[in-house]
Amino acid sequence: MKKKAHAPIRTTAVLKPRSLDPTAMKRREMVERLRKAGITDARVLDAMGAAPRHIFMEPILADRAYENNSAPIGSRQTISRPGTVALMTQLAGLKGDETVLEIGTGSGYQAAVLSLLCQRVITVERINALSNKARKIFNELHLDNIVCLVGDGSVGAPKYAPFDVIMVTAVAPTFPRHLADQLKEGGRLVAPVGEGSSQKLALARKGRGRLIVEEKEACNFVPLIGEMGFSL
């Protein structure tokens, strides 16, 4: 049986031609490590190979951008490991026509990866400086399907709802079931839950107005600060 081709990712000016890209080899090596680690979605692998992670990092750390490590980005926040970004994106199950809510813009890297795989990304960040920095990078990369908001992401973005997927990139003390109202029927919610060293990444699917939650693996995220998260 002929293998069905996967839908292409959006490639609107995110990268130089590969022959001019000095990070191309490091990207390919990163993608191969992700494949061996269990990332099987070809579109996710393509997006991880396209999004220039080094641009979202502090210049002093950029030469290590394609290693599987998190790194500080200022304001006591971090950029997630490529393996974590790839796993969360794979769990989202994007096909190309979705609207995604991301809670916790941070560096902007996760939003950039998502933007290559869906129709529109709404990303919310509580720290104005981080949101402004990410927005500038999105503009430089011509990622014009990302909307940046500043505010309390723990309550979602009801003005833009409903969403096909909601991704929370900071850990909440309990699973954010209040966000179910902002999901379309059949939508997915990907979020880390817990405290300290007891964090778990979870995937929920909405069916008949209810969430069915499945825990995936241990993780380590900065806390979700806000009305429905942790207090400052």
List the helices and strands and how they pair.
Blueprint: H1 24-36, H2 42-50, E1 71-74, E2 77-79, H3 82-92, E3 99-103, H4 109-115, E4 120-125, H5 128-140, E5 146-150, E6 163-168, E7 183-193, E8 200-207, E9 210-218
Parallel strand pairs: 3-4, 3-6, 4-5, 6-7
Antiparallel strand pairs: 1-2, 7-8, 8-9
Helix pairs in contact: 1-2
> What number of domains?
1
Broad CATH class: Alpha Beta
Count up the helices.
5
List low-confidence stretches. Answer: none
Per CATH, the superfamily is Vaccinia Virus protein VP39
Helix % is 10-25%
Oligomeric organization of the protein chains:
single chain
Tell me about the biggest sheet?
A: 7 strands, mixed
Classify the secondary structure makeup into a structural class.
alpha/beta
CATH architecture: 3-Layer(aba) Sandwich
| Mean pLDDT level | 92
Distance between the amino and carboxyl termini: 56 Å
Describe this structure in words.
- With 232 residues, the chain is α/β, with parallel strands linked by helices.
- It has one domain: Vaccinia Virus protein VP39 (Rossmann fold).
- Helices cover 23% and strands 25% of the residues.
- The protein contains 5 helices and 9 strands.
- It has helices at 24-36, 42-50, 82-92, 109-115, 128-140, and strands spanning 71-74, 77-79, 99-103, 120-125, 146-150, 163-168, 183-193, 200-207, 210-218.
- Helix 1 (24-36) packs antiparallel against helix 2 (42-50).
- It is globular.
